[in-house]
Amino acid sequence: MYEFLQGKVHRSIPGLAIIEAGGIGYRVQVPLSTSDMLIVGADTRLLLHHTINAEQGEERLFGFATDRERELFLALLIVQGIGPSTALQMMCAGSPDDLINAIASGDVATLKRLKGIGPKRAERLVIELKDRLQAFAGPKSPIKPAGAASGAAQQDAVLALLALGYPSTKSAEAVTKAAEKLGAAAATDALVRAALQTM
């Protein structure tokens, strides 16, 4: 229904962006790779995927900075049992390159460690998407250096988990554990990825 949204970044936290366009603020869920590219106050254009949950009367927008990210997201939705929330969680647990390479190379061991992905679903991901994603496979993205330590990074990480639909208590506990594991210099995106592995 919607192809893209162009406007000004009103707010951006890992996993969630508020884009102002035509005087309306659109709440858009985004993978961490897209969050990294958004600058508050700057103009942006996000490629969209729109979902409607008829039972709950809920509409959601998922946004992506690149065609590659959106293609990966849509490919994940093809697999039985993987909905938009699970697909976004998978994309937030690592870089798009890491996820694509894991599927294209048949790395079931890595895939089954992702939240909501057990052994059977990991095998199904490989069987159904391996050939489709091989064209997208390439070298892994370099790991970004951690940013400066701050309580704000942990707060933003909790907000990101809330945006992904996790309960506030579990989100705070997971981020605390992630901070203890990664150290004081951990950046928000690193905290979110580590927290997702424990939830």
Task: Give a verbal description of the structure.
The N and C termini lie far apart (33 Å). The chain is globular, with a radius of gyration of 16 Å. It has 3 domains: 61 residues, OB fold (Dihydrolipoamide Acetyltransferase, E2P), CATH 2.40.50; 67 residues, 5' to 3' exonuclease, C-terminal subdomain (DNA polymerase, domain 1); 48 residues, Helicase, Ruva Protein, domain 3. Helix 2 crosses helix 6 and helix 7 packs across helix 9. The longest helix has 15 residues. The chain is built from 9 helices and 5 strands, in the order βββαββαααααααα. It has 199 residues and is an alpha+beta fold. The chain has a 5-stranded mixed beta barrel.
List keywords for this structure.
single chain; 199 residues; alpha+beta; OB fold (Dihydrolipoamide Acetyltransferase, E2P); DNA polymerase, domain 1; Helicase, Ruva Protein, domain 3; 3 domains; 5-stranded mixed β-barrel; 9 helices; 5 strands; globular
